[in-house]
Design a protein that fits this description.
381 residues, alpha+beta, 4-stranded antiparallel beta sheet
Length: 381
Amino acid sequence: MDYSVDLILKYPLINIKSTEKSDIVRIHGKIYVHHKYFAVTLHQITHLNGAPKYKLKSITNVKSKSTLSKIKNALSTDVFRNIVEVLDQMNEILLQDTDVKHLEVHTDIYRKVIHEYSEFVKFFLNISTCELKEDLTTICVAVTDSKPRLHSVEIAVDYSKKSSDLFRISAADLPEKDQAILKGNESLIALFDTFIGQLELLQPYFELMDTLDEHATILDPDKPRKSDAYRRIWLGENISTIITVDPFNIYERPDIKFLGPDRLIESFSSSLNENIGKWVYQENIFQGILDLLGLQEFPKKDTATNQVNLLVEFGECSICFCLRLNNKLPEIICTNQSCEKLYHNQCLYDWLVSLHAKRVFNNISGNCPNCEKTISCPLMN
């Protein structure tokens, strides 16, 4: 009788491998007994008469010596037709050690997971890759949309039985507001269909962010994800803009902020104030953003410029000499026109605190590390 299906359903974390000796098979993995995993290694030894014997090589999380002795005695004296019977016997003995009368069996859930997964891979035709983990706890899927863009999602299987929703999305690169929409579902196909529906809804958002990435010099995020609903865009030396959109209301006017000295910000702020009431764009949102800023196109930063002789390259913090600190770019700029050095908020704050600088409301003020003119930054938590 073929016991392989029974082994997969009852003990999906158990692997069987041959060894250098033809008469010995190594059985290794984990068995789950009453909310606890036991890592176990067994050897199956086949004698000349063909009857297999089993020898315990190691097992973890067994506290009682008597329990360990019972397992070894059972393996040496009892007759087992296959490894499933061996593991069942070990399960019963380990269950006694945990003082639990009833063994929690996930066989029915395993069957449902395998059935749902089988139907799932046949139902969706635009799936690029799909993998069910060996322990049947996670399904990893990559799917393409109409552009095509690749979207990855991780689906977890809930064995707790606290809810009828067996499947839930545990990881997906989508805007935060969207995560709450993707609740669990007892059907894998229905859950993924909801995910596909959200991808279709967010197509205008993905299109805009791709266009910004293609036609502008993006300072932040360094490696944009689909969940990043903002872009910090280079407008010139010492000036940039942060454009934040609502992924779920993409045609609403975006939030636009400028970072830089007042003398450089002034012209962009004037254009924004002049054009802000004209926002009626329902199709070409990218062009609408350019019009708000008074630009024909976004300027491109010359990345080939040789700055090897400079102590601090453009955009780097003049205290730590790094571009990013905790994945953040410098956001404080000295207002002195002859200085205009950039600083991370954290670096400048630590500098000013070390000088016992003056605190006013939610800011701390002191001397710029470069020009010694007055500079301030927000207080850090």
